[in-house]
Design brief:
about 280 residues
Protein backbone atom coordinates (compact mmCIF):
# COMPACT_ATOMS: atom_id res chain seq x y z
CA UNK A 1 0.00 0.00 0.00
CA UNK A 2 1.33 3.41 -1.01
CA UNK A 3 1.34 6.40 1.28
CA UNK A 4 1.18 9.68 -0.61
CA UNK A 5 3.58 12.21 0.90
CA UNK A 6 2.98 15.08 -1.50
CA UNK A 7 1.70 15.92 -4.98
CA UNK A 8 2.25 18.85 -7.33
CA UNK A 9 0.67 19.82 -10.64
CA UNK A 10 3.28 20.46 -13.33
CA UNK A 11 3.11 20.55 -17.13
CA UNK A 12 -0.44 19.27 -16.98
CA UNK A 13 0.55 16.15 -15.07
CA UNK A 14 1.23 15.23 -11.46
CA UNK A 15 4.56 14.99 -9.65
CA UNK A 16 4.13 12.85 -6.54
CA UNK A 17 6.24 11.43 -3.73
CA UNK A 18 5.29 8.07 -2.21
CA UNK A 19 6.36 5.86 0.68
CA UNK A 20 5.72 2.15 1.19
CA UNK A 21 6.90 -0.72 3.36
CA UNK A 22 9.32 -2.71 1.22
CA UNK A 23 9.45 -6.47 1.71
CA UNK A 24 12.62 -6.69 -0.37
CA UNK A 25 14.50 -4.05 1.63
CA UNK A 26 12.80 -4.75 4.95
CA UNK A 27 12.39 -1.02 5.58
CA UNK A 28 10.17 1.83 4.38
CA UNK A 29 11.22 3.13 0.96
CA UNK A 30 10.35 6.33 -0.88
CA UNK A 31 10.09 6.96 -4.61
CA UNK A 32 8.94 9.78 -6.85
CA UNK A 33 6.57 9.52 -9.82
CA UNK A 34 5.63 11.93 -12.57
CA UNK A 35 2.41 11.03 -14.36
CA UNK A 36 1.83 12.90 -17.65
CA UNK A 37 -1.61 14.25 -18.64
CA UNK A 38 -2.19 11.11 -20.73
CA UNK A 39 -2.34 9.04 -17.52
CA UNK A 40 -5.72 10.60 -16.70
CA UNK A 41 -7.25 8.57 -19.53
CA UNK A 42 -5.09 5.47 -20.09
CA UNK A 43 -2.09 3.50 -18.94
CA UNK A 44 1.19 5.05 -20.03
CA UNK A 45 4.72 3.76 -20.61
CA UNK A 46 7.22 4.48 -17.86
CA UNK A 47 10.87 5.35 -17.51
CA UNK A 48 12.75 4.37 -14.36
CA UNK A 49 15.49 6.83 -13.45
CA UNK A 50 18.30 5.76 -11.09
CA UNK A 51 20.17 8.58 -9.39
CA UNK A 52 23.83 8.74 -8.42
CA UNK A 53 25.91 8.90 -5.26
CA UNK A 54 24.58 11.14 -2.45
CA UNK A 55 21.26 11.65 -4.29
CA UNK A 56 17.73 10.60 -3.33
CA UNK A 57 14.35 9.95 -4.92
CA UNK A 58 13.79 13.72 -5.11
CA UNK A 59 17.01 14.74 -6.87
CA UNK A 60 15.95 13.92 -10.41
CA UNK A 61 12.44 15.43 -10.40
CA UNK A 62 13.72 18.65 -8.81
CA UNK A 63 16.89 19.17 -10.86
CA UNK A 64 16.60 17.53 -14.29
CA UNK A 65 13.69 19.41 -15.84
CA UNK A 66 12.38 16.21 -17.39
CA UNK A 67 8.66 16.62 -16.72
CA UNK A 68 7.95 18.90 -19.68
CA UNK A 69 9.38 16.32 -22.11
CA UNK A 70 7.71 13.39 -20.36
CA UNK A 71 4.42 15.29 -20.67
CA UNK A 72 5.03 15.85 -24.38
CA UNK A 73 5.65 12.15 -25.06
CA UNK A 74 3.13 10.78 -22.56
CA UNK A 75 5.69 8.91 -20.46
CA UNK A 76 5.72 8.44 -16.68
CA UNK A 77 8.96 8.97 -14.73
CA UNK A 78 9.73 6.85 -11.68
CA UNK A 79 12.76 7.46 -9.45
CA UNK A 80 13.60 5.39 -6.35
CA UNK A 81 15.91 6.32 -3.51
CA UNK A 82 19.58 5.41 -3.91
CA UNK A 83 19.79 3.08 -0.90
CA UNK A 84 17.86 1.89 2.14
CA UNK A 85 17.50 4.42 4.95
CA UNK A 86 17.38 3.55 8.63
CA UNK A 87 19.12 0.19 8.52
CA UNK A 88 21.29 1.34 11.43
CA UNK A 89 24.33 -0.59 10.24
CA UNK A 90 27.56 0.50 11.89
CA UNK A 91 29.52 2.73 9.53
CA UNK A 92 26.80 3.14 6.90
CA UNK A 93 26.93 6.95 7.08
CA UNK A 94 30.70 7.37 7.39
CA UNK A 95 31.52 7.50 3.66
CA UNK A 96 29.68 9.36 0.91
CA UNK A 97 30.49 6.64 -1.63
CA UNK A 98 29.42 3.59 0.40
CA UNK A 99 26.38 2.85 2.55
CA UNK A 100 23.53 5.36 2.78
CA UNK A 101 22.80 7.00 -0.61
CA UNK A 102 25.31 4.63 -2.22
CA UNK A 103 23.55 1.30 -2.63
CA UNK A 104 25.07 0.74 -6.10
CA UNK A 105 21.93 -1.12 -7.27
CA UNK A 106 23.29 -4.52 -6.23
CA UNK A 107 21.88 -7.25 -4.01
CA UNK A 108 24.41 -7.40 -1.19
CA UNK A 109 25.54 -10.87 -0.14
CA UNK A 110 27.98 -9.85 2.58
CA UNK A 111 26.85 -9.34 6.17
CA UNK A 112 25.60 -7.05 7.59
CA UNK A 113 24.59 -5.42 4.29
CA UNK A 114 22.76 -8.41 2.85
CA UNK A 115 19.70 -7.98 5.07
CA UNK A 116 18.63 -4.60 3.69
CA UNK A 117 20.88 -3.52 0.82
CA UNK A 118 19.03 -5.27 -2.02
CA UNK A 119 18.51 -2.42 -4.45
CA UNK A 120 18.82 -4.55 -7.60
CA UNK A 121 15.86 -6.76 -6.71
CA UNK A 122 13.96 -3.82 -5.28
CA UNK A 123 14.14 -1.84 -8.53
CA UNK A 124 13.68 -4.78 -10.88
CA UNK A 125 10.83 -6.47 -9.04
CA UNK A 126 9.13 -4.78 -6.12
CA UNK A 127 9.23 -1.16 -7.27
CA UNK A 128 8.16 -2.11 -10.78
CA UNK A 129 5.32 -4.35 -9.57
CA UNK A 130 4.17 -1.78 -7.01
CA UNK A 131 4.04 0.99 -9.60
CA UNK A 132 2.14 -1.13 -12.12
CA UNK A 133 -0.38 -2.26 -9.52
CA UNK A 134 -1.04 1.14 -7.95
CA UNK A 135 -0.62 3.56 -10.87
CA UNK A 136 -1.76 3.79 -14.52
CA UNK A 137 1.52 2.31 -15.79
CA UNK A 138 1.75 -0.02 -18.80
CA UNK A 139 4.06 -2.78 -17.58
CA UNK A 140 4.82 -3.93 -21.12
CA UNK A 141 6.38 -0.56 -22.07
CA UNK A 142 9.21 0.18 -19.65
CA UNK A 143 12.61 1.79 -20.07
CA UNK A 144 15.41 2.66 -17.68
CA UNK A 145 18.13 5.32 -17.43
CA UNK A 146 20.31 6.96 -14.82
CA UNK A 147 23.31 9.07 -13.87
CA UNK A 148 26.76 8.03 -12.63
CA UNK A 149 26.12 5.24 -10.06
CA UNK A 150 22.57 5.23 -11.38
CA UNK A 151 23.82 5.01 -14.96
CA UNK A 152 25.73 1.90 -13.89
CA UNK A 153 22.55 0.52 -12.33
CA UNK A 154 20.45 1.28 -15.39
CA UNK A 155 22.89 -0.38 -17.78
CA UNK A 156 23.19 -3.47 -15.59
CA UNK A 157 19.45 -3.85 -15.03
CA UNK A 158 18.71 -3.40 -18.72
CA UNK A 159 21.45 -5.71 -19.97
CA UNK A 160 20.40 -8.45 -17.55
CA UNK A 161 16.68 -7.98 -18.12
CA UNK A 162 15.97 -7.05 -21.76
CA UNK A 163 12.63 -8.83 -21.39
CA UNK A 164 11.58 -6.15 -18.85
CA UNK A 165 13.21 -2.99 -20.19
CA UNK A 166 12.71 -2.09 -23.84
CA UNK A 167 15.13 0.86 -23.85
CA UNK A 168 18.14 2.11 -21.89
CA UNK A 169 20.33 5.21 -21.67
CA UNK A 170 22.75 6.80 -19.22
CA UNK A 171 24.44 10.04 -18.27
CA UNK A 172 28.12 9.64 -17.35
CA UNK A 173 27.68 6.08 -16.06
CA UNK A 174 30.19 4.14 -13.99
CA UNK A 175 30.56 1.89 -17.00
CA UNK A 176 33.29 -0.48 -15.82
CA UNK A 177 32.98 -0.55 -12.00
CA UNK A 178 35.37 -3.48 -11.58
CA UNK A 179 38.14 -1.16 -12.79
CA UNK A 180 37.46 1.94 -10.69
CA UNK A 181 37.86 2.89 -7.01
CA UNK A 182 34.14 3.51 -6.45
CA UNK A 183 33.18 0.16 -7.89
CA UNK A 184 35.89 -1.85 -6.18
CA UNK A 185 34.99 -0.36 -2.80
CA UNK A 186 31.27 -0.98 -3.24
CA UNK A 187 31.59 -4.48 -4.66
CA UNK A 188 34.06 -5.63 -2.03
CA UNK A 189 31.89 -4.21 0.73
CA UNK A 190 28.56 -5.51 -0.52
CA UNK A 191 29.58 -8.69 -2.37
CA UNK A 192 32.85 -9.85 -0.82
CA UNK A 193 36.30 -10.43 -2.26
CA UNK A 194 35.47 -12.96 -5.01
CA UNK A 195 35.67 -10.78 -8.11
CA UNK A 196 33.85 -13.38 -10.20
CA UNK A 197 30.67 -12.41 -8.34
CA UNK A 198 31.22 -8.79 -9.31
CA UNK A 199 30.89 -9.42 -13.06
CA UNK A 200 27.10 -9.64 -12.94
CA UNK A 201 27.05 -5.97 -11.93
CA UNK A 202 29.58 -4.63 -14.43
CA UNK A 203 28.02 -3.32 -17.66
CA UNK A 204 31.21 -3.70 -19.69
CA UNK A 205 31.60 -7.31 -18.57
CA UNK A 206 27.93 -8.04 -19.31
CA UNK A 207 28.17 -6.67 -22.84
CA UNK A 208 31.42 -8.53 -23.50
CA UNK A 209 29.87 -11.81 -22.34
CA UNK A 210 26.58 -11.49 -24.21
CA UNK A 211 25.84 -13.97 -26.98
CA UNK A 212 23.88 -11.37 -28.96
CA UNK A 213 23.11 -7.64 -28.81
CA UNK A 214 20.54 -6.91 -26.12
CA UNK A 215 19.27 -3.64 -27.61
CA UNK A 216 19.19 -3.59 -31.39
CA UNK A 217 18.03 0.03 -31.49
CA UNK A 218 21.04 1.11 -29.49
CA UNK A 219 22.11 2.31 -26.06
CA UNK A 220 22.45 6.07 -25.61
CA UNK A 221 25.23 7.40 -23.36
CA UNK A 222 26.18 11.04 -22.88
CA UNK A 223 29.55 11.91 -21.35
CA UNK A 224 30.99 15.33 -20.55
CA UNK A 225 34.67 15.71 -21.41
CA UNK A 226 35.22 18.10 -18.47
CA UNK A 227 33.83 15.52 -16.05
CA UNK A 228 36.47 15.20 -13.35
CA UNK A 229 35.49 11.57 -12.73
CA UNK A 230 35.64 10.42 -16.36
CA UNK A 231 39.13 8.95 -16.53
CA UNK A 232 39.52 7.37 -13.08
CA UNK A 233 35.95 6.35 -12.24
CA UNK A 234 33.69 6.16 -15.29
CA UNK A 235 35.65 4.46 -18.11
CA UNK A 236 33.27 5.13 -21.02
CA UNK A 237 35.95 3.98 -23.46
CA UNK A 238 35.98 0.50 -21.90
CA UNK A 239 32.22 0.21 -22.37
CA UNK A 240 32.51 1.51 -25.92
CA UNK A 241 35.09 -1.12 -26.82
CA UNK A 242 33.01 -3.89 -25.24
CA UNK A 243 29.96 -2.82 -27.27
CA UNK A 244 32.02 -2.64 -30.45
CA UNK A 245 33.37 -6.17 -30.01
CA UNK A 246 29.95 -7.57 -29.11
CA UNK A 247 28.12 -5.83 -31.93
CA UNK A 248 25.93 -3.93 -29.47
CA UNK A 249 24.83 -0.63 -31.08
CA UNK A 250 25.96 2.28 -28.89
CA UNK A 251 25.58 6.03 -29.27
CA UNK A 252 28.32 7.40 -27.01
CA UNK A 253 28.23 11.17 -27.30
CA UNK A 254 31.17 13.13 -25.90
CA UNK A 255 30.56 16.78 -25.05
CA UNK A 256 33.30 19.39 -24.73
CA UNK A 257 33.13 21.52 -21.58
CA UNK A 258 30.38 19.60 -19.77
CA UNK A 259 30.94 18.20 -16.29
CA UNK A 260 29.26 15.65 -13.99
CA UNK A 261 26.50 17.91 -12.69
CA UNK A 262 22.76 18.15 -13.24
CA UNK A 263 23.41 21.15 -15.48
CA UNK A 264 24.84 18.56 -17.88
CA UNK A 265 21.83 16.28 -17.43
CA UNK A 266 19.36 19.14 -17.88
CA UNK A 267 21.03 20.06 -21.17
CA UNK A 268 20.51 16.65 -22.78
CA UNK A 269 17.48 15.26 -20.95
CA UNK A 270 15.19 16.01 -23.90
CA UNK A 271 17.29 13.75 -26.13
CA UNK A 272 17.08 10.91 -23.63
CA UNK A 273 13.31 11.14 -23.25
CA UNK A 274 12.98 11.15 -27.06
CA UNK A 275 15.31 8.14 -27.31
CA UNK A 276 13.09 6.15 -24.99
CA UNK A 277 9.88 7.44 -26.56
CA UNK A 278 10.88 5.91 -29.89
CA UNK A 279 10.89 2.48 -28.25
CA UNK A 280 7.99 2.90 -25.83
CA UNK A 281 5.30 4.98 -27.55
Amino acid sequence: MLETIETHLTHGGTQALYRHDSKTIGLPMRFSVYLPPHAQHSRVPALFYLAGLTASEETFPIKAGAQRFAAKHGIALISPDTSPRGANIAGETEDWDFGVAAGFYVDATREPWSRHYRMYSYVRDELRETAIAALPIDGARLGIFGHSMGGHGALVLALRNPDIYRSVSAFAPIAAPMRCPWGKKAFAGYLGDDEQTWRQYDASELVAGADAPRFEDGILVDQGLSDKFRIEQLHPDVFEQACLKAGQPLMLRRHEGYDHSYYFIETFIEDHIAHHARALT
